[in-house]
Amino acid sequence: MGSVLLLYVLIKRTFGVWAGRFAALAMALTPIVPAVSRTNNIDSMLVFTLLLATWMLFRAVRTVKFGWVLAAFAMIGVAFNMKMLQAYMVLPAFYVFYVVATKITWKKKIAFLTTATALMLAVSVSWAVVVDSTSADKRPYMGSSQTNSVLELAFGYNGINRLTGNTSVTGSSHKQPAQTEQQTASSETKQNSNSSADSSQSSNQRKSSFSQKMQAPGGGNQNGMFNTGNPGPFRLFQKGLSDQISWLLPFVIFSIVGLFAGVKFKGPYTAKQKESLFWLAWLLPVAVFFSIAGFFHQYYLIMLAPPIAAFAGAGAVALWSMYKQHNDWKSWLLPGGILTTAALQVYIMSPYVSSIGVAPIAGVGALGVILALVLAIRKQRKNSLTNYLGAAAMVVLLAMPAYWAMTPIIYGGNSMLPSAGPDSSSGMGGPPSTATNSKQSGFNGMQPPGISSGNSSSNNQMQPPSGSSNGGQMPGGSSNNGQMQPPSGSSNSGQMQMPGGSSNNSQMPNSFSSKSSSSKRKSGGMNAEVNQKLLNYLTKNNTGEKYLFATTDSTSAAPYIIKTGKPVMAMGGFSGSDPILTVSKLKAMIKKGEVKYFYLSGMGKGGQSDVITWIKENSKEIPSSKWQSTSSSAQQGPSGNGTLYEITLK
Fold first, then answer.
1. Mean of all residue pLDDT scores within the chain
2. What is the pLDDT of residue 175?
3. Which of 649, 594, 599, 589 is nearest to 627 (CA)?
4. Is the pLDDT at 220 greater than 50, yes or no?
5. Quick one: CA torsion of 473, 478, 483, 488, rounded to 10 degrees?
6. Which DSSP state fits 331?
7. Which of the four pLDDT bands, split at 50, 70 and 90, describes residue 219?
């Protein structure tokens, strides 16, 4: 809400109240914006902070006061502490705008920008330096780093590695090529190499893992890693990204042409041209990054929302003015922008025919063509009907983005990787699945330790942790034709759950009144049930240990902590690969009676390989019949997603 208001204020001052209103509306209806804002991912707060910095920069230019320059760059430093290097993506816009727009000498410009940049860097690394300077035994381990360092995390895994596609957190380098070849390690998608069930399948999977392809929800390589498409100049128009951010991109391109029409390189520049240059310098570098980056998630695209919305608002007013006042090529920009934008929206919606039907797709296409043609024919007529036609065109172009933006509210949900769209109720967006079983759209389910998995298939899939199914699945269980699956198990009917149990109320609804949608809203999204039989066993056999049990990653531990309020140890942190523990430290904890039960699913061996190996060699395996629940009767296949161990040392 703050970002929408700030964008309105920023655009209104220079481009007018209607430009500000339309920009704010476009920002609010950009699908990925509400999708991210309804989760506890920090990206929406990052965008708000960067827009606040933009307001300070604009004020610095208008008042020519150095204090506002310092404040603007210091705010970028604050943003760095939210999402690290992602905050620096706007720096080209800040530097270019200040140099072009500020009426002071070059000497002062360089001095002011140098000082402001130094302050930004100091604010950026302040928390990281304090943390890294604190003795490791007096602070928590820095999750997802391999050297227990915030600076390493900021500039490595959360920095340059996002561009290169090197998502390894185990110290080895595994880049993701343009064709999204299989990586051997990732903090969010760990390959299973440690299965306790069906070991022969795990062995075969390990041998072939380097030649496997990463699969996205919906099956097939074309959607890329995490449904972010394949690197290339048209990546933002590919499935998985286009429906999150690109609905108005053609109109934005026409708007940019109109706003910069007649601009001379040497100036002088109007206030509108200067601020348009700022938004262009924000838009282009970020768009280039997402077009070539090897590793990111759909919700990062919120970084593109402000400049796209700004150009949509400013451009709508500018193109309308050119349409009514000019007789040359500029007057064709408005109908041309409407026509191409409607065409792109039809393309974006086309994979969702089974979810939304043909009517809205045909409606947007037909209305877009008709309105563009009518506006072209009536180009010289200035009356109220023409005004209504222009307004109607804007409504048509925002109609389907508005629906997409509403889906996170309609479906609710508790998504780790938020996205918007008719299929977002499965926990991850993207077009409907091409799997042979149409019910297995998106993620097929997440289950807790001890729930049997089944309904698996083979065909070039990546094996999940503690592999109970065939082929090469993403961490998590069964799939059809290479679908990506969530951690720990599988289920039918396109369900997605937190590790902790199967559920029937998370199915992808086919309409607003869907019973499953209603159930999801009441339950708060993805079901967080636990394996009650496992919980009963652990509770009954607890003899005063601090931890109910230990497991590899926080995703497996979280539902049990929420359910019981008791500590559960995530030995490998968030992804299961943090080298937090050592064998000697774990021995000491066991001898002190802090923990004795270990559930190992094969997730995140990485930096924990020595610890996991020691646990297996020095423990007693608990028979699965004592703690393992079975899934619904619809599920079939080998039982067990992992193994429960007990260790007692004297």
1. 77
2. 39
3. 599
4. no
5. -70
6. G
7. very low
| 165 — pLDDT class (breaks 50, 70, 90) | low
Q: What pLDDT does 10 receive?
A: 97
User: Strand pairing partners for 500?
Assistant: none
Tokens of 155: 């500039």
- With 0-12 / 13-18 / 19 or more C-beta atoms within 10 angstroms meaning exposed / middle / buried, residue 585 is exposed
Mean pLDDT for 233-261 is: 94
* Sequence-ordered list of residues with C-beta below 8 angstroms from that of 569, at least 6 positions apart, any chain: 547, 549, 550, 551, 557, 595
Rounded Cα distance, 29 and 366, in Å: 22
Candidates 409, 413, 477, 480; CA nearest to 445 is 477
Among 531, 534, 537, 530, CA closest to 563: 530
Instruction: Confirm if 205 and 467 have CB atoms less than 8 A apart.
Output: yes
Q: Is the pLDDT of residue 214 over 80?
A: no
Provide the whole-model pTM.
0.74
d(CA 458, CA 481): 7
d(C-alpha 612, C-alpha 205), whole Å: 20
Could you tell me if 227 and 423 are in contact, meaning their C-beta atoms sit under 8 angstroms apart?
A: no
